[in-house]
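Deliverable D5.2: sample structural annotation.
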Amino acid sequence: MTTLSVVIPVLNDGEMLRRVLADLAAQTRPADELIVVDNGSTDDTGDVARGAGAIVLLQPVKGIMSAAATGYDAATGDVIARLDADSRPYPDWLERIEREFDSSPAIGVLTGPGDFYGARAWVNWIAEHLYIGAYFNVVGPWLTNVPVFGSNFAMRRSVWQETSPLVHRDTPHVHDDLDLALHLPLDVVTRYDHTLRVGVSARPFDSWSGLWQRVAWAFVTFKLHWPDASPWARRAARRRLFRAEAAKRQDYLSR
Protein backbone atom coordinates (compact mmCIF):
# COMPACT_ATOMS: atom_id res chain seq x y z
CA MET A 1 0.00 0.00 0.00
CA THR A 2 1.37 3.42 -1.00
CA THR A 3 1.79 5.85 1.90
CA LEU A 4 1.36 9.58 1.30
CA SER A 5 3.07 12.47 3.06
CA VAL A 6 1.95 16.06 2.51
CA VAL A 7 4.46 18.90 2.96
CA ILE A 8 3.42 22.56 3.36
CA PRO A 9 6.08 25.30 3.77
CA VAL A 10 4.67 28.34 5.59
CA LEU A 11 5.58 31.84 6.75
CA ASN A 12 2.98 33.86 8.67
CA ASP A 13 0.19 31.98 6.93
CA GLY A 14 -2.03 31.10 9.89
CA GLU A 15 -5.30 32.26 8.36
CA MET A 16 -4.83 30.51 5.02
CA LEU A 17 -3.28 27.46 6.66
CA ARG A 18 -6.55 26.82 8.52
CA ARG A 19 -8.33 26.47 5.19
CA VAL A 20 -5.85 24.14 3.51
CA LEU A 21 -5.67 21.93 6.59
CA ALA A 22 -9.47 21.73 6.65
CA ASP A 23 -9.40 20.77 2.96
CA LEU A 24 -6.87 18.04 3.71
CA ALA A 25 -9.01 16.75 6.58
CA ALA A 26 -11.90 16.39 4.10
CA GLN A 27 -9.95 14.32 1.55
CA THR A 28 -11.54 11.12 0.32
CA ARG A 29 -8.12 9.54 0.82
CA PRO A 30 -6.53 11.06 3.96
CA ALA A 31 -2.81 11.80 4.19
CA ASP A 32 -0.73 9.32 6.17
CA GLU A 33 1.56 12.12 7.31
CA LEU A 34 1.16 15.89 7.35
CA ILE A 35 4.27 18.07 7.72
CA VAL A 36 4.15 21.85 8.10
CA VAL A 37 7.52 23.61 7.91
CA ASP A 38 7.53 26.98 9.68
CA ASN A 39 10.02 29.32 8.03
CA GLY A 40 10.09 31.81 10.94
CA SER A 41 6.47 32.83 11.48
CA THR A 42 5.52 35.44 14.07
CA ASP A 43 1.77 34.76 13.94
CA ASP A 44 -0.21 31.71 15.09
CA THR A 45 0.89 29.52 12.17
CA GLY A 46 2.55 26.92 14.38
CA ASP A 47 -0.43 26.65 16.72
CA VAL A 48 -2.81 26.26 13.78
CA ALA A 49 -0.71 23.44 12.35
CA ARG A 50 -0.34 21.61 15.66
CA GLY A 51 -4.05 21.99 16.32
CA ALA A 52 -4.73 20.09 13.10
CA GLY A 53 -2.42 17.26 14.11
CA ALA A 54 0.43 18.20 11.77
CA ILE A 55 4.10 17.61 12.46
CA VAL A 56 5.62 21.09 12.77
CA LEU A 57 9.26 21.60 11.81
CA LEU A 58 11.17 24.86 12.20
CA GLN A 59 13.52 26.08 9.48
CA PRO A 60 15.10 29.46 10.27
CA VAL A 61 16.94 29.75 6.92
CA LYS A 62 14.58 31.89 4.86
CA GLY A 63 13.40 30.70 1.47
CA ILE A 64 10.73 28.39 0.11
CA MET A 65 13.32 25.88 -1.12
CA SER A 66 14.90 25.73 2.32
CA ALA A 67 11.56 25.18 4.03
CA ALA A 68 10.21 22.73 1.47
CA ALA A 69 13.43 20.67 1.42
CA THR A 70 13.29 20.38 5.22
CA GLY A 71 9.83 18.87 4.88
CA TYR A 72 10.81 16.53 2.07
CA ASP A 73 13.81 15.32 4.09
CA ALA A 74 11.58 14.47 7.05
CA ALA A 75 8.78 12.82 5.06
CA THR A 76 8.46 9.06 5.47
CA GLY A 77 5.74 8.37 2.88
CA ASP A 78 6.39 6.49 -0.34
CA VAL A 79 5.06 9.57 -2.16
CA ILE A 80 5.56 13.17 -1.03
CA ALA A 81 2.81 15.58 -2.04
CA ARG A 82 3.32 19.33 -1.88
CA LEU A 83 0.92 22.22 -1.30
CA ASP A 84 1.31 25.85 -0.31
CA ALA A 85 -0.59 27.43 2.56
CA ASP A 86 -2.89 29.18 0.10
CA SER A 87 -3.57 26.03 -1.94
CA ARG A 88 -7.08 24.61 -1.93
CA PRO A 89 -6.99 20.93 -2.86
CA TYR A 90 -10.23 19.42 -4.09
CA PRO A 91 -11.59 16.49 -2.03
CA ASP A 92 -10.15 13.81 -4.33
CA TRP A 93 -6.69 15.37 -4.72
CA LEU A 94 -4.80 12.75 -2.70
CA GLU A 95 -6.95 9.94 -4.05
CA ARG A 96 -5.98 10.94 -7.61
CA ILE A 97 -2.31 11.12 -6.68
CA GLU A 98 -2.34 7.66 -5.12
CA ARG A 99 -4.21 6.17 -8.07
CA GLU A 100 -1.80 7.58 -10.66
CA PHE A 101 1.34 6.48 -8.84
CA ASP A 102 -0.08 3.01 -8.16
CA SER A 103 -1.23 2.51 -11.76
CA SER A 104 1.95 3.88 -13.37
CA PRO A 105 5.10 2.65 -11.59
CA ALA A 106 7.28 4.51 -14.12
CA ILE A 107 6.07 7.92 -12.89
CA GLY A 108 8.55 9.72 -10.67
CA VAL A 109 6.80 13.10 -10.41
CA LEU A 110 3.17 14.08 -10.97
CA THR A 111 2.02 17.68 -11.35
CA GLY A 112 -1.03 19.64 -12.41
CA PRO A 113 -2.27 23.22 -12.87
CA GLY A 114 -3.93 25.70 -10.54
CA ASP A 115 -7.31 27.42 -10.53
CA PHE A 116 -6.59 30.93 -9.32
CA TYR A 117 -8.88 32.68 -6.87
CA GLY A 118 -9.02 35.82 -4.77
CA ALA A 119 -8.53 38.53 -7.41
CA ARG A 120 -10.56 40.09 -10.17
CA ALA A 121 -11.67 37.68 -12.86
CA TRP A 122 -9.28 39.09 -15.45
CA VAL A 123 -6.32 38.82 -13.03
CA ASN A 124 -7.19 35.19 -12.24
CA TRP A 125 -7.41 34.49 -15.99
CA ILE A 126 -4.02 36.07 -16.69
CA ALA A 127 -2.42 34.16 -13.81
CA GLU A 128 -3.86 30.84 -14.96
CA HIS A 129 -3.47 31.13 -18.72
CA LEU A 130 -0.50 33.44 -19.26
CA TYR A 131 1.66 32.99 -16.18
CA ILE A 132 1.15 29.27 -15.48
CA GLY A 133 0.44 28.55 -19.14
CA ALA A 134 3.74 30.13 -20.13
CA TYR A 135 5.51 28.20 -17.39
CA PHE A 136 4.42 24.83 -18.76
CA ASN A 137 4.59 25.75 -22.46
CA VAL A 138 7.89 27.66 -22.44
CA VAL A 139 9.86 26.10 -19.61
CA GLY A 140 8.82 22.58 -20.62
CA PRO A 141 10.67 22.64 -23.97
CA TRP A 142 13.67 24.23 -22.20
CA LEU A 143 13.77 21.36 -19.69
CA THR A 144 12.96 18.74 -22.34
CA ASN A 145 10.58 17.49 -19.68
CA VAL A 146 7.41 18.55 -17.88
CA PRO A 147 8.15 21.32 -15.34
CA VAL A 148 6.96 21.03 -11.75
CA PHE A 149 4.29 23.39 -10.37
CA GLY A 150 5.18 23.87 -6.70
CA SER A 151 1.64 24.47 -5.46
CA ASN A 152 0.40 21.18 -6.87
CA PHE A 153 2.72 18.21 -7.30
CA ALA A 154 3.84 14.92 -5.82
CA MET A 155 7.01 12.86 -6.17
CA ARG A 156 8.27 9.52 -5.06
CA ARG A 157 10.44 9.78 -1.96
CA SER A 158 13.17 7.89 -3.85
CA VAL A 159 13.22 10.71 -6.44
CA TRP A 160 13.70 13.30 -3.71
CA GLN A 161 16.46 11.29 -2.05
CA GLU A 162 18.35 11.28 -5.34
CA THR A 163 17.76 14.99 -5.96
CA SER A 164 18.11 16.32 -2.41
CA PRO A 165 21.91 16.88 -2.42
CA LEU A 166 21.68 18.95 -5.62
CA VAL A 167 19.00 21.59 -4.98
CA HIS A 168 19.84 25.15 -3.91
CA ARG A 169 18.20 24.82 -0.53
CA ASP A 170 20.05 27.76 1.06
CA THR A 171 19.46 30.23 -1.77
CA PRO A 172 16.36 32.31 -0.92
CA HIS A 173 15.45 33.95 -4.25
CA VAL A 174 14.89 30.90 -6.41
CA HIS A 175 11.75 29.20 -7.63
CA ASP A 176 11.89 26.01 -5.62
CA ASP A 177 9.81 24.06 -8.13
CA LEU A 178 11.94 25.15 -11.08
CA ASP A 179 15.14 24.43 -9.15
CA LEU A 180 13.83 20.96 -8.35
CA ALA A 181 12.85 20.35 -11.99
CA LEU A 182 16.28 21.42 -13.22
CA HIS A 183 17.97 18.94 -10.89
CA LEU A 184 15.75 15.93 -11.58
CA PRO A 185 17.67 13.09 -13.23
CA LEU A 186 16.88 12.94 -16.93
CA ASP A 187 15.46 9.43 -16.62
CA VAL A 188 12.81 10.55 -14.10
CA VAL A 189 9.38 10.57 -15.71
CA THR A 190 7.35 13.68 -14.89
CA ARG A 191 3.68 13.51 -15.83
CA TYR A 192 1.34 16.47 -16.27
CA ASP A 193 -2.30 15.74 -15.43
CA HIS A 194 -4.64 18.60 -16.29
CA THR A 195 -7.35 17.05 -14.10
CA LEU A 196 -5.14 17.15 -10.98
CA ARG A 197 -6.10 20.66 -9.94
CA VAL A 198 -5.98 22.81 -6.82
CA GLY A 199 -7.17 26.30 -6.06
CA VAL A 200 -4.26 28.76 -5.85
CA SER A 201 -4.35 32.28 -4.43
CA ALA A 202 -3.73 35.09 -6.90
CA ARG A 203 -2.25 37.29 -4.15
CA PRO A 204 1.23 37.35 -5.76
CA PHE A 205 -0.39 39.19 -8.68
CA ASP A 206 -1.92 41.96 -6.55
CA SER A 207 0.80 44.29 -7.82
CA TRP A 208 3.23 44.58 -10.70
CA SER A 209 6.08 44.36 -8.21
CA GLY A 210 4.81 40.97 -7.02
CA LEU A 211 4.63 39.69 -10.59
CA TRP A 212 8.07 41.09 -11.44
CA GLN A 213 9.54 39.44 -8.34
CA ARG A 214 8.41 36.05 -9.56
CA VAL A 215 9.79 36.67 -13.03
CA ALA A 216 13.09 37.86 -11.53
CA TRP A 217 13.33 34.69 -9.43
CA ALA A 218 12.99 32.65 -12.60
CA PHE A 219 16.00 34.44 -14.12
CA VAL A 220 17.99 33.89 -10.92
CA THR A 221 17.12 30.19 -10.94
CA PHE A 222 18.14 29.70 -14.56
CA LYS A 223 21.35 31.69 -14.02
CA LEU A 224 22.37 29.39 -11.17
CA HIS A 225 22.21 26.45 -13.59
CA TRP A 226 23.85 28.11 -16.60
CA PRO A 227 25.32 26.76 -18.85
CA ASP A 228 24.94 23.16 -17.68
CA ALA A 229 21.13 23.39 -17.81
CA SER A 230 20.90 25.37 -21.04
CA PRO A 231 18.37 23.95 -23.54
CA TRP A 232 21.08 22.65 -25.88
CA ALA A 233 23.06 21.10 -23.02
CA ARG A 234 19.96 19.32 -21.70
CA ARG A 235 19.01 18.09 -25.17
CA ALA A 236 22.53 16.76 -25.72
CA ALA A 237 22.46 15.01 -22.34
CA ARG A 238 19.05 13.49 -23.11
CA ARG A 239 20.32 12.21 -26.50
CA ARG A 240 23.27 10.56 -24.73
CA LEU A 241 20.86 8.96 -22.27
CA PHE A 242 18.65 7.63 -25.06
CA ARG A 243 21.67 6.23 -26.92
CA ALA A 244 22.93 4.54 -23.76
CA GLU A 245 19.51 3.00 -23.08
CA ALA A 246 19.22 1.83 -26.69
CA ALA A 247 22.67 0.24 -26.48
CA LYS A 248 21.68 -1.60 -23.30
CA ARG A 249 18.52 -2.92 -24.93
CA GLN A 250 20.44 -4.05 -28.00
CA ASP A 251 23.05 -5.75 -25.84
CA TYR A 252 20.31 -7.55 -23.92
CA LEU A 253 18.55 -8.72 -27.09
CA SER A 254 21.78 -9.95 -28.65
CA ARG A 255 22.58 -12.31 -25.78
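Annotation notes: The longest helix spans residues 121-143. The chain has a mean pLDDT of 88.
The annotation will be released with the project's public dataset once the embargo ends.
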